[in-house]
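Hello, quick one for you while I still have it in my head. A protein chain has come my way and I'm curious about its shape. Can you walk me through what the tokens say about the fold? No rush at all, and the record is pasted right below.
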Amino acid sequence: ASFRATLQGYFFPASIAVMIGYWIGGLWTPAVTRFYILSLPGVIAAVFAGRFLHHRIDPRYFTRLVHAGLIGIGGLLLFQSR
């Protein structure tokens, strides 16, 4: 539970900061709002799927999956920044 709380403690404020940055930079457009709203059902489904899987997966395996996902996302962002 503390691992999930730590991730939530980072990603929630980081997401808010990104949204504020988009707004200040004039990047929050009607298209961004539309895509944000369209993504909400998927996000909500992912939250429930994550809760379901969290109780059925060994905590060590879950931690490895999260770390692998974070490394994958970081690698993808590095690749896209070129």
In short: The longest helix spans residues 30-54. The chain is about 85% helix and 0% strand.
